[in-house]
Amino acid sequence: MRLLAIETSCDETSAAVLDGAGDEVVLRSLVILSQDVHAIFGGVVPEMASRAHLTAIVPVVERALMDAGGHGFDGVAVTNGPGLVGALLVGVSYAKALAFARGVPVVGVHHMEGHLFATALEHRGAVPPFTALLVSGGHTLLLDVERWGRYRLLGRTRDDAAGEAFDKVAKLLGLPYPGGPHIERLAAVSHSGGFHFARPMLRRDQTPDRPDFYDFSFSGLKTAVLKAVHASPNLDGDRGAIARAFQDALVDTLVAKTERAARQFTRRRVVLGGGVACNATLVAAMRERFDGRGVEVFAPSPRLATDNAAMIARAGLFHLERGERSALDLSAFATQPLPGLVAA
Ligand code: KG4
Ligand code: ZN
User: Fold this and answer.
1) Does residue 148 belong to any structural domain of this protein?
2) CB of 279 closer than 6 angstroms to any ligand 1 atom
3) What is the per-residue pLDDT across 35-54, written as a single tens digit (0 to 9) for each?
4) Is residue 122 a part of any domain in this protein?
5) Domain shared by 104 and 47, yes or no
6) Of the chain's two ends, which shows fewer C-beta atoms within 10 Å, N or C?
7) What's residue 126's pLDDT?
8) Which range marks the domain in which residue 136 is found?
9) What is the pLDDT of residue 344?
């Protein structure tokens, strides 16, 4: 089956073409157009994102089809939530129109399920069963994945997402948007010095029967950084140390909770996804923690970690192969529960 996929949930207009069946797939093309206009405003401006998607969607899809060597496809997958509704609607409307015109099925894909499938596009071993940590700008999810389509939600953030924490802390430190890569670069050449931030929601006395065992919370960490920034007599001198101490605290928490989940469910694979999985320090810390324990850690390359249509194609293929189809009244949703959730 040849699948065309479209992703417009936030500030990337992306299209991809994927061939294959089951876990045997070949990515034929992937086009990602990032809207850098938002950097001026220090965050994504929804109305501008929608308008930029409108301008970009036709050439981006055309280019993906051309790169794949032809205009034929057997189905269309499109992100229909969660995300910015106006942005999502551009992709959803175009996907439905294309599918209708060609007489092929269309299927709506949950954005985070896309992130869950992304790593499998590059690593044959990144298939269930595994423990998954999805860390993006809008979500932080810790899942036990028994098989594709069957997800046990173990933990989530109670306030800010991991990527959101990176972005907000970057703003406090006077770094550009999106902040994750800037903090990582600064932290890599800095020592935490006298700064230390408590690991949020991480205590030894937590037990698996309580939600705080797996849940995350990053807004307190953000406030601690804010206080450190205000207390600093010389932010230019302290910026690197604060960035490093913040990243250390956040990474430590993500690694510790993922370790709990993998151990509890005796999984031998850990799969990372979402934009924060670009963070090499996080990936290295995760590998180090599982080193020598027979647990393999899989992380996507940056192009597949951040928002892209290839991951939507991969998740969409799974749903189409199961016979799922969306009707032409498929809509876009700002929030949407992950499909396939089983009770914890
Ligand atoms: O998955 P994604 O592209 O979009 C959403 O679905 O939100 O994730 C974007 C997030 C941003 O918050 C960005 O700061 C973060 O991923 N990010 C990083 C890094 N690269 C991107 N965070 C930490 N370290 C990085 N190297
Ligand atoms: Zn995303």
Assistant:
1) yes
2) yes
3) 988 988 888 999 999 999 99
4) no
5) yes
6) C
7) 98
8) 129-299
9) 66
Reduce the secondary structure of 208-249 to three states and give it as a string: CCCHHHCCECCHHHHHHHHHHHHHCCCHHHHHHHHHHHHHHH
> How confident is the model at residue 196, as a pLDDT?
98
Q: Which two tokens stand for residue 179?
A: 């902040």
φ, ψ dihedrals at 47, nearest 5°: -60, -40
Q: Which atom of ligand 1 is nearest to the CA of 278?
A: 26
Looking up residue 50, the CATH number of its domain turns out to be 3.30.420.40
- Closest residue by Cα to atom 16, ligand 1, is 275
In this structure, the answer to whether residues 161 and 291 fall within a common structural domain is: yes
| Residues 231 and 295 grouped into a single domain | yes
| 232, part of any domain | yes
Tokens of 139: 């979500």
Residue to probe by mutation, ligand 1, list 136, 157, 338, most atoms within 8 Å of CB = 136
Residue with the two structure tokens 């070949």: 26
Number of residues that make up the chain: 344
* Structure tokens given for 17: 């073409």
Q: Is residue 121 domain-resident? A: no
Residue 206 Cα distances to 159, 211, 285, angstroms: 19, 9, 22
Low-confidence ranges of the chain (pLDDT < 50): none
